[in-house]
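User: Predict structure, ligand D-mannonic acid.
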Amino acid sequence: MSLPEIAITEHSMQQDQHKDKLIRLKQENLSLLPDSIVRPSYDRSILTAGIVHIGVGGFHRSHQAYYTDELLAKTGTTDWAICGVGLRDADRKIADVLKKQDYLYTLIVKHADGRIENRVIGSLIDFMLGSDDPAAVTNKMASETTKIVSLTITEGGYNFNQATGRFDFSNPEVQHDLKNPNNPITVFGYLTEALRKRRASGLPAFTIQSCDNIQHNGDMTRKVLMAFTQKQDAELAKWIENEVRFPNAMVDRITPVTTIIDIETLRNEAGLKDKWPVTSEPFSQWVIEDKFPNGRPQWEAVGAQFVPDVTPYEKMKIRLLNAGHSVLGLLGSLQGHESIDECMQDPLFATYLRRFMDFEATPILEPVEGIELDEYKDSLIERFGNPNIKDNLVRICLESSAKLPKFLIPTIKENLEKGGSIGYATLVIAAWCYYSDKATNRLGKKLEIVDDMKEELHLAAAGTSTDALSFLKLKPIFGDLIDNKVFTDEYTRMTTELYETPDVAHQMQTVLFGRD
Ligand code: CS2
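Assistant: Predicted complex:
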């Protein structure tokens, strides 16, 4: 939607007697909302937060909190509301917005045909800011009513060094937490302190549930938390090892960044003032390993799937959807595209994506029970093409240094081992090098790069003109890929050509159809 359309809508609203009063999102105003907006039908005042969730970003709000809202509405359970937690001062904005809105917010679901469903989510009933009072947060996690602590801390938040395969103890915040158990900063410090308190009061452990896009996200959480705890309190580590479960899960719902236009459209078209709604596609999926000894919500009643082994589902999703996003994101940025759907309207990009999926990602996937891979890929292509989602490539490319080692590089490595195709993915790495070095697209327009490793990426990539493999020397990202000649030959050819003429479309055609 363009801005002039919003102005027109505002104008027509002023003419409309029924809509001349804007409704501020608050519990007491829910009954005033227009019928078209779904809102909590359950009594929020009697809910208990069985879940404490760390990382209340858009994805948590469109996914786990949505499933939980549906569960509260459908089953009448009162034990499974959510207390949100932000650990950083940067979370103050969401803390303030949610508090003023009685922890309510709107989920705006955008269909491909233009239909919009607005739904006020009520499952979040509290929010705590760790940086204000860490002890209050660990007390909350340690309280008897808390059964699950769930996490969306992003792919990079696990503090795992890809090159060594170990937890990164050199992180100064981790060092701080090792020495200051009562005053933690990192998620590892918080979880350890909360579990220490639970054990001291004789309560069973909570289950730790990761909701990040990492294969074996539960196993990864266990690995990094155990490394931290063993160093801080070896005795407690034994208790955690025996008592805490970390179910793996596959999570999925495309959730673009909320824009000012989303906020204004909600206000102008539905008459609802919400300072921070969240938008998403209609599709959502959640496949979870059933390992919750301290009890869990019946999320299966509202569409989640509990399975004994989630591995094939996670691998399929991360290697097709998330990797597919990175393929479009990095190549599309160089080409000058702005969003995923814009890439999908470009036949070259749409073909490239499908071939990457078919020739490089699919051959290394195991069969997934109940899922026809061709249909799954068709559905991804449809979802990526949703013209109303406008998933910006800046979001897709942000923190690529944490994403690519999980989404794309393992596919290259596995294909190298089996002698499979690597050209499609290798061009993405070459494009990433050019992007990190120049921060401009093929037309010389500046690109916004957001990455914790931005400086290192830039320095390594800038070395390419004198050493073709300079970028690959970033071991925490590429591991030993630099030692594989099949890969480095292909990569060197691609970067050389890109640096000569950054015509990414031409390079994509070469991968697709060979050299002329
Ligand atoms: C995206 C994901 O971060 C990314 O690059 O691929 O956020 C993706 O949209 C979600 O995982 C969809 O479930």
